[in-house]
């Protein structure tokens, strides 16, 4: 991103210069020996010098607009002061030609000091303005880099969802086909629905809880084809809660996490409950730890934590008392991206 060049309104330049010109004649106005011709010439010389120095300072600063400076350049300041002294000398000489009766030496010293002060004011004002532009651009670039980085991280998070689920589902389908299971056709339809939900939902940051529950139900149908009555599921979510929002596949990942880390069998069924209370959605299951855990690809809880942090800057709550394992998700009533 190129640094923005300084632009000052013509009205600001001319009005401020005329004001400085008038201000320079105030001492003469207070004098008992007021000479209107001297006052007008003095004001005109000061105003002309101010206008010239405005444009020279703007030109010099814009020449270095491509450089990311946020400090005063003393070399550039000395060059501009030198230009100013030469220009003011020339204007003082013109003043001497118009007002030949004045003493050139003392007047010359006075106008040079005045010129240096005007020059410094112009330079410092424009330098502060340029530094402000530069600071804003740097901040915008940092925010853009941060936003792009977070966006890329979030896309990677969404791509992590269900990387090995298809493999397990196809193995289950193969077994059902070999045993001529009557539910093979339903299994294929649900598997198709599940991946259709996956493709549609991955484009979104948030979906309704009701839509998310359709994904969970399709997923559980596929898992029950594998585990039978080894899994029981209770959905106690209220209608109002189903209209709130949630990152896609959050509940599905939590249900998958329950199955992956606990014993699931006909003799010891795993009961999973989803309900809401105190502005939270709670996913709960009894702890039935496996002796050997299934391979994990690093998704599940970490994925959900990072997505909530990225989208909402909120944390999920994990509670375990060695008997019951709970995940508490904040309800999202509306979404404003940070």
From TrEMBL:
Keyword Plastid applies: no
Regions that span the bilayer: 12-30, 42-62, 74-95, 107-129
Classification via InterPro entries: Bact_2-comp_sensor_kinase, Sig_transdc_His_kin_internal
GO CC, alphabetical: membrane
Sorted UniProt keywords: Kinase, Membrane, Transferase, Transmembrane, Transmembrane helix
UniProt GO molecular function: phosphorelay sensor kinase activity
Residue ranges of domain Signal transduction histidine kinase internal region in the record: 152-229
UniProt protein name: Histidine kinase
Native source organism of the sequence: Chryseobacterium flavum
């Amino acid at each position: 991103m190129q640094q923005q060049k300084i632009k000052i309104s013509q009205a600001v330049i001319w009005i401020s210069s005329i004001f400085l010109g008038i201000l320079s004649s105030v001492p003469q106005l207070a004098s008992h020996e007021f000479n209107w011709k001297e006052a007008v010439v003095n004001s005109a010389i000061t105003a002309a010098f101010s206008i010239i120095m405005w444009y020279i300072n703007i030109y010099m600063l814009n020449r270095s607009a491509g450089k990311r400076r946020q400090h005063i350049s003393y070399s550039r300041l000395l060059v501009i002061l030198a230009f100013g002294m030469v220009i003011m000398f020339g204007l003082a000489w013109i003043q001497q030609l118009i007002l030949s009766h004045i003493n050139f030496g003392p007047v010359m010293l006075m106008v040079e000091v005045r010129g240096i002060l005007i020059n410094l004011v112009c330079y410092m004002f424009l330098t502060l303005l340029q530094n402000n532009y530069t600071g804003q651009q740097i901040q915008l670039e940092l925010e853009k880099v941060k936003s792009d980085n977070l966006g890329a991280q979030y896309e990677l998070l969404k791509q992590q969802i269900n990387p090995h689920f298809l493999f397990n589902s196809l193995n289950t389908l193969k077994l059902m086909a070999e045993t001529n299971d009557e539910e093979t056709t339903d299994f294929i339809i649900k598997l198709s629905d599940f991946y259709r939900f996956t493709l549609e939902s991955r484009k979104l940051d948030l979906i309704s809880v009701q839509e998310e529950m359709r994904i969970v139900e399709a997923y559980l149908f596929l898992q029950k084809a594998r585990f039978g009555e080894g899994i029981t599921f209770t959905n106690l979510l209220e209608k109002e809660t189903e209209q709130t929002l949630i990152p896609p596949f959050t509940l599905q990942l939590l249900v998958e996490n329950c199955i992956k880390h606990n014993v699931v069998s006909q003799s010891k069924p795993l009961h999973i409950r989803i309900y809401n209370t105190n502005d939270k959605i709670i996913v709960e299951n009894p702890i039935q730890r496996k002796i050997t855990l299934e391979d994990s690809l690093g998704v599940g809880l970490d994925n959900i934590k990072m997505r909530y942090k990225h989208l909402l800057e909120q944390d999920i709550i994990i509670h375990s008392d060695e008997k019951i394992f709970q995940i508490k998700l904040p309800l999202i009533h509306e979404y404003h991206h940070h």
